[in-house]
Amino acid sequence: MKYIAIFIFLFAYGIAQGQTYPAGQEPDRVILNLTTDAQHTQAVNWRTTVAQAEGQIAQLRIENNSPDFQDSSLRVFKAKTTFFTDNEKRQSAYHAVELTELESGTVYNYRVGKEGAWSEWFQFKTADGTDQVSFIYLGDAQNDLRSRWTRVYRKALQTFPEADFVIHAGDLINRNNTDAEWGEWFYAGTGINSSYPQVMVPGNHEYFRDEEKKLTLDPHWQQQFNLPTNGVAGLEESNYYMDYGPLRIIALNTQVIMLDSAYRKAQAIWLENILKDNKQKWTIIVCHHPVYSTSKSRDNFQFSGLFQPLFEKYGVDLLLQGHDHTYARSPLPQKNEKKPVYLVSVSGPKMYEIDPQKDWMEKSAENTQLYQTITIDNNQLQFKTYTADGKCYDQFELNK
Ligand SMILES: [Fe+2]
After folding, report:
1. In angstroms, what is the span from residue 169 Cα to ligand 1's centroid?
2. For labeling, which of 50, 63, 89, 380 is most exposed (least CB within 10 Å)?
3. How far is ligand 1, taken at its centre, from the CA of residue 394, in Å?
4. Residues 176 and 210 placed together within one structural domain of the fold
């Protein structure tokens, strides 16, 4: 009887606490991140228990159809391991590897872990150096990820399995530094994050103020991702750029642009240099806060005031944004006009209303979960927006 009472108590306590996602003996949260040289390098990150931390490696081979993975082409990469204590005071080990000297346009197999505790073998493809690229863009996932975001993420990949990578425009989770929410985010991406390189910027929900009131990025971010560090000093992995085929992707950290004038100025100077030197045919900005808001009292003048003139001066093609929990797209630029197309989208279940006074939108939606696919082929960019059920909701083409 006593044991039954203890069991009922623990069961009820578990429900009240919500599901947690502790590290296991075998690798979890395996994720690829796009690098600045996607033709030849691939970043991988994963997690284990502390007890399993020693001797973690990645194995890699060029894909072939044999189930015998121990052939002579197998390469081994030693992981860089760091320890992390999450908000539930649990310690785990995170492991990072950069797979290098890869062949362009080639499918590879890899697995991570160590003897007796391996991940499955995954596949990924390196960039091929042509003037074609395609990818998926997702607005805020943020809330109730496992239950109500998973279907959207999976539908996006079913619609567009040929994507080269996936972009997330911030607010991946709701409560910063909440390991259980990151557990749900990774759960939704099971089999996707380990096969398609990921690109993400933080939103306001990945930030908090520490005891000295200093604006601080969720410590999970740099533990679990392996993003470029070529942005403003102090904003490593949240402000950066990378080139992929004919495309330059520029990630701006708009949370610090909104709330910190020093980082605002520093990112504007950095951005102007990146745009001035840009020889890529297409340029896309990924950022969380939108230049044009869809809702009342949510304009982001600290951002738009300083940055919008740069986007227009240097001919940025597209802004992929989030934050407003609606869908909205600006009109396409007229011939010889250097204006970007401004997009706001949302993939998760949290919804806001559109302010009818806002008249910048050519196409919009409320109360709808969405995902977007983008294909660039030399001088042409095709953009498609889909609703969660896989129906095309909006589309346009840009030509150079
Ligand atoms: Fe947000």
Report:
1. 9
2. 89
3. 23
4. yes
Residues of the domain holding 210: 132-399
pLDDT in tens, 189-211: 999 999 999 999 999 999 999 99
Q: Separation of 320 CA from ligand 1 center, angstroms?
A: 13
162 C-alpha to ligand 1 centroid (Å)? 29
Same domain, 319 and 377: yes
Indicate the residue among 71, 99, 125 that finishes a domain.
125
Q: Model-level pTM greater than 0.90?
A: yes
Same domain for 65 and 138 = no
Residue that the structure tokens 């690109």 belong to: 199
pLDDT digits (tens, 9 = 90+) for 219-273: 999 999 999 999 999 999 999 999 999 999 999 999 999 999 999 999 999 999 9
Residue 278 sits in a domain whose CATH number is: 3.60.21.10
Nearest CA among 236, 219, 147, 139 for reference residue 185: 147
> Does residue 48 form part of some domain?
yes
- Token output for 39: 């033709």
Phi, psi angles (nearest 5°) of residue 265: -65, -40
How remote is the CA of residue 173 from the centroid of ligand 1, in Å? 10
| Dihedral angle computed from the Cα positions of residues 171, 177, 178 and 179, in that order, rounded to the nearest 10 degrees | 110
* Domain identity same for 257 and 299: yes
